[in-house]
Design a protein that fits this description.
Length: about 600
C-alpha cells in the first residue's frame, strides 16, 4: 500500500513532504508554502459561476485575521470558542484561527427553520457545559443564537463578519501570535455527541488524536494532493469536520462544501457537485445514499459522470446491504463503481474512523440467523439463499454488511468474548481514541480510563477480521427474549409508503388499562404523505404486517406524526427516550386517528 505516511503528505512531484508542525493550523501554513495558489476550499452556490474558491494562501489570511479578531476580544490559549456557522469558509477560518491561538474550537449546531427546539436545547447544553469565551456565528443568525444561549454576561455572541472585516477590531494588525507551545496531548477540539440517548457530552480531541486519525485515513484511502473531497454533511458533525476539513488539510487536497439543507432539498446537488468538481472522496450516512436512489431520477442520472468518485464512505449509522446494492445499481449508468463504496464505522470518541472497507475492494457481507444477533450469542453465517431461521421459525435470515477492517494502529475487539462471531459491546484501542469527556476531565478526581482504550455503547461482532455493527445498546428493543435493533425496525418501516425513512422510534410501555408491556412504534410521515383517516389506517396495517413478517416483531400500537414533528437531535438521530416520555405523558403531537 502506498500513500502518505506518518506526518507526511504527497507533494506536487509525488515525493513525500514532511510535516513538522503539531496542529492543523501548521498543516494549513505548510500547504500555503508548498502550493500557495492551489484550491483549499470551494463553497458551492446554486450554479457553477456562483461557486466561491479560496486558495491555501487566501484561507490562511482569513484564519489569521479571524484569530486577530478573537485575540482583540481577549480570547487566549485554553479558552473555548463555540462555532455556530454554516458549511462555508467562515467555519474553516474560525477553526484554524482558534488553532493558531491555542484556543479550543467547539463546533456547535446552526439554527434550523423546522427544528428550533432541537437547536436551542443543544447549543444551550454545549455553552453550559464548556463555558466558552465567545460564540461565533453569522450576522444573519446572531440574534437567534443570542436568544438561544440566553446571552450570559461572560459569553459574547459575535458575527464572524465582524471578526474578519472590522479594521478597528484588528488593532492595525492581521497577524496573530502563532501558538508555539502546542503539544500532542493538548486539546484541539471539543466534539459534542449527538445527545440521542442522553445529554450531549464534549469529546476531548487532542492534537495527537486528530493527527493520528488523519494519518490513518490517508493510508486507508491512499489520499494524495490530487484528491478532491465533496461534502454536504454539517461541519459541526464529526463526519463533516474530519472528512470535510481536517483530512483534506492534512493531505493537502481541495474540499468542496455544500449546505446540508441544499442536499436534503435536492439530493442530486451532491452528485452534481461530485461531477462538476471531479470529486474523488465523499462521505455520507446510509440514509444519504438511500435518499439519492429514491429522489434522483434517470433524467438527472443520465447527465452525471461519477467515474472520478473512488471513495464513497458510508458511515454514521448502521450500513444497510440493500442500500449499498441499490445505490451501486442505480448509478452504474453514471459510472459509479461498486467497489468505490466503503462501509465504515466510527464515532466522535475515536475522533472519527475505527474500521473501513478499502477502495477497490468489495465489502464483505454475510447472511445470518437473526435470532443469533443478541448479546452473548455467537453468529455463524448461513448458506447464501437460505432465508429460513436454523431454529425452524418463519423469520428469514438477515443479510448484514461489514464495516471493514480496523485502520492502521487500531485494535477492535468485543467485550467479554474472544470467539469469532461473538456479539457484544465494541471496544477500540488506538492513538485516535479521545482522552475522555470535557466535564469529566475537569473533575478533580476524573474516572479512570486507560489511554487509547474505549468501550463503546455499540453492539457488534468480528468475523474474518471485519467488524459488523448491529446498533446502539440504548436503542435496542428487547421483546420476549429477542433483541430488535432500531436500525432494522426503521429500515422495515421505511418501506411503508409515506413514512419518512429513518424517522422511527420503537419502545415498550405499559398502558394504564393493559396488564403487560406493549411495543409502540411511532413514525414520522413525509410532507407529501396522505393523512386521511383511510390512508392512515391502511398504513398502520401495512407497517404492523411488515414488522411481523420481516422481523418477527409484533406491535401493540402504531402511530404517526407529521413531518418535522418527531424529536431528533441536530444531526437527525431519533431521541427515542424523549419520544417515549412524551408518548406516555400525552404531549406527543400524533396525527388524529393514527393510534
Amino acid at each position: 500500500m502506498t500513500g502518505p505516511g506518518a506526518g507526511e503528505i504527497a507533494g506536487d512531484t509525488g515525493r513525500p513532504v514532511t510535516r513538522t508542525g503539531i496542529t492543523a493550523y501548521d498543516w494549513l501554513r505548510g500547504n500555503a508554502a508548498i502550493a500557495p495558489t492551489a484550491a483549499a476550499v470551494t463553497v458551492c452556490g446554486t450554479g457553477q459561476c456562483d461557486d466561491e474558491r479560496y486558495s491555501f494562501t487566501e484561507l490562511l489570511a482569513l484564519a489569521d485575521r479571524t484569530a486577530a479578531g478573537m485575540r482583540a476580544h481577549g480570547v487566549g490559549r485554553g479558552d473555548r470558542v463555540v462555532l455556530s456557522l454554516p458549511n462555508d469558509v467562515s467555519f474553516l477560518a474560525v477553526t484554524f484561527g482558534c488553532l493558531a491561538l491555542g484556543v479550543i474550537a467547539v463546533p456547535g449546531p446552526v439554527p434550523e427553520v423546522n427544528r428550533v427546539s432541537a437547536f436551542e436545547e443543544r447549543i444551550t447544553s454545549i455553552v453550559d457545559d464548556c463555558s466558552p469565551r465567545l460564540t461565533i456565528t453569522t450576522r444573519q443568525w446572531a440574534s437567534r443564537v443570542r436568544e438561544a444561549v440566553h446571552c450570559p454576561e461572560d459569553v459574547a455572541v459575535l458575527p464572524w463578519e465582524t471578526l474578519d472585516a472590522t479594521a478597528e477590531l484588528l488593532e492595525a494588525t492581521a497577524v496573530p501570535p502563532v501558538d508555539q507551545h502546542a503539544r500532542p496531548a493538548d486539546v484541539a477540539l471539543l466534539q459534542y455527541t449527538s445527545g440521542s440517548t442522553k445529554r450531549p457530552r464534549g469529546v476531548v480531541i487532542t492534537h495527537g488524536a486528530l493527527r493520528a486519525c488523519c494519518r490513518q485515513a490517508a493510508a486507508a484511502y491512499l489520499e494524495t494532493r490530487a484528491d478532491v473531497a465533496v461534502t454536504w454533511v454539517p461541519l459541526y458533525h464529526d463526519m463533516g469536520l474530519i472528512t470535510g476539513v481536517m483530512r483534506p488539510m492534512y493531505s493537502g487536497y481541495e474540499t468542496v462544501l455544500l449546505r446540508p439543507e441544499a442536499f436534503i432539498r435536492t439530493p442530486a446537488s451532491w452528485l452534481k457537485a461530485i461531477d462538476r468538481h471531479r470529486g474523488t472522496m465523499s462521505s455520507a450516512p446510509n440514509f444519504g445514499y438511500d435518499l439519492c436512489v429514491r429522489k434522483v431520477g434517470h433524467d438527472v442520472m443520465n447527465a452525471l459522470d461519477l467515474r472520478t468518485w473512488r471513495v464513497a464512505r458510508n458511515a454514521g449509522e448502521v450500513v444497510r446491504a440493500e442500500t449499498v446494492d441499490r445505490f451501486a445499481a442505480h448509478f452504474a449508468a453514471a459510472g459509479f463503481r461498486p467497489d468505490a463504496m466503503c462501509p465504515s464505522y466510527g464515532l466522535a470518541e475515536a475522533t472519527l474512523t475505527v474500521t473501513s472497507s478499502r477502495p477497490g475492494q468489495r465489502p464483505l457481507r454475510i447472511s445470518v440467523d437473526s435470532a443469533d444477533l443478541a448479546p452473548g450469542c455467537q453468529v455463524s453465517p448461513i448458506p447464501p439463499g437460505d432465508r429460513t431461521s436454523r431454529r425452524g421459525g418463519s423469520v428469514p435470515g438477515t443479510l448484514i454488511q461489514s464495516c471493514g477492517a480496523p485502520v492502521a494502529d487500531t485494535r477492535v475487539y468485543i467485550d467479554g468474548g474472544t470467539a469469532e462471531g461473538y456479539v457484544g459491546r465494541i471496544c477500540v484501542e488506538g492513538s485516535q481514541v479521545a482522552t475522555g469527556y470535557w466535564t469529566e476531565c475537569q473533575d478533580s478526581d476524573p474516572p479512570e480510563r486507560p489511554a487509547g482504550r474505549l468501550v463503546t455503547n455499540d453492539l457488534g461482532f468480528v468475523y474474518q477480521g471485519q467488524l459488523f455493527v448491529l446498533g446502539r445498546i440504548d436503542d435496542t428493543l428487547v421483546r420476549h427474549g429477542r433483541n430488535f435493533y432500531a436500525a432494522d425496525v426503521a429500515a422495515v418501516c421505511g418501506r411503508v409508503a409515506g413514512v419518512h425513512p429513518g424517522r422511527v422510534a420503537a419502545f415498550t410501555t405499559r398502558p394504564a388499562d393493559e396488564p403487560d408491556d406493549q411495543v409502540i412504534v411511532v413514525a414520522e410521515l413525509r410532507a407529501d404523505a396522505d393523512t386521511t383517516a383511510q390512508a392512515l389506517a391502511r398504513r398502520q396495517r401495512h407497517l404492523v404486517t411488515e414488522l411481523a413478517r420481516s422481523l418477527g416483531l409484533y406491535v401493540g400500537r402504531a402511530a404517526f406524526m407529521p413531518t418535522h414533528a418527531l424529536p431528533v437531535t441536530t444531526s437527525g438521530k431519533v431521541r427515542t427516550a424523549e419520544v417515549r416520555r412524551r408518548f406516555e405523558d400525552g404531549s406527543l403531537p400524533l396525527l388524529p386517528g393514527s393510534c
